[in-house]
Amino acid sequence: MSKRLTSFGPINSIARTEETHPLTWRLRDDGEPVWLDEYQQKNGYAAARKALTDMAQADIVQQVKDSGLKGRGGAGFPTGVKWGLMPADESLNIRYLLCNADEMEPNTWKDRMLMEQLPHLLVEGMLISARALKAYRGYIFLRGEYVDAARNLNRAIDEAKAAGLLGKNILGSGFDFELFVHTGAGRYICGEETALINSLEGRRANPRSKPPFPAAVGVWGKPTCVNNVETLCNVPAIVGNGIDWYKSLAREGSEDHGTKLMGFSGKVKNPGIWELPFGVTARELFEDYAGGMRDGFTLKAWQPGGAGTGFLLPEHLEAQMYAGGIGKVGTRMGTGLALAIDDSVNMVSLLRNMEEFFARESCGWCTPCRDGLPWSVKILRALELKQGTTEDIQTLLGLVNFLGPGKTFCAHAPGAVEPLGSAIKYFREEFEAGVVRAPVEPRPTVVETPI
């Protein structure tokens, strides 16, 4: 099988065409960025021209809504519905489009690949989306460590400006749109859209109370829409090729439409990212693309989409990779980049490492998250050192409940405890092995004294 090697691992290059791989068909074989001239030769900005010169703004929104495009950042909220929340009042002429590129979910790097190698795809997606939303200014809120992505995006923006694809009166349409790259200071919580907005404004990155939602009161108090990188990169293909084509991409049985960047990492033979149709089975992703486990290792468990998703077992590999398919086996698809856990890994140690990350990245705004996550780390550390008590496992399960969905200010804590709950469910014996066993007191010797 022919492979193209990049710094992100092997990416399947067989039969990658515009009709079947809207996100990745333009990728170069050498892994270098696709700049403006080459991007336009590969039909780049054709969809933007169509959207700006031939389509009404409301028609773009309706087309994205009818396509069934859902957010690709992990939550999976329908994009067109989110766009429809923006106010129709023309007097509110100051509104913003924000791209959430704060990709700090452990084991996830799909957006990085798009931004580094196809920066103009994101620029075009934001241009069309801004037109639909009547947003005159956009920001790409980028993870600070993505230095190469920042450089490539800034160059792409400069190229687009010079070509009249950004700025004033774009393509003679009368539409103005400015786009900027804003690098974050390195907080996982900025992946939550309102924390991202606070950080962009120069405030502490705490989530905001909702309502009001960003569509009504967002950045600097103005109507704002926040979308993920991969989500926005789907927009040009939908506008250019139509709804029926987009819906035809997914496998039979999938309730989600289009394609998704999926991957596998861990001790697999062929770690990497691939653009695949929704509905492929996890087994196909694991065996046919990732090549299965390396020699000498056995698959013990796997996570379907980032550290904030629950663990699954090898028998769950038959699940289809879409939100509902993974939901049927008890967790969320998340970002779609899976992690293989091999049989040499101790689950208590793995969870201690994960919960340390989540505890450190908590903004500290609400009590359950601020106090509960460090508490879980303390207990897991004791179990790891085989100094736990008989009550510790029940306490951890209590924290899974108390920090669950709807009980904290944002989704950070529920995502943090989901893998913890699933690990105890499937590997409880490894947690019990960390409990100190009290030594059995020997019975006293009874000496019978003759009367």
From TrEMBL:
Keyword Iron: yes
Keyword presence, Translocase: yes
EC number: 7.1.1.-
Keywords tagged on the record: 4Fe-4S, Flavoprotein, FMN, Iron, Iron-sulfur, Metal-binding, NAD, Quinone, Translocase
Oligomer and partners: Composed of 13 different subunits. Subunits NuoCD, E, F, and G constitute the peripheral sector of the complex.
Function: NDH-1 shuttles electrons from NADH, via FMN and iron-sulfur (Fe-S) centers, to quinones in the respiratory chain.
Official protein name in the record: NADH-quinone oxidoreductase subunit F
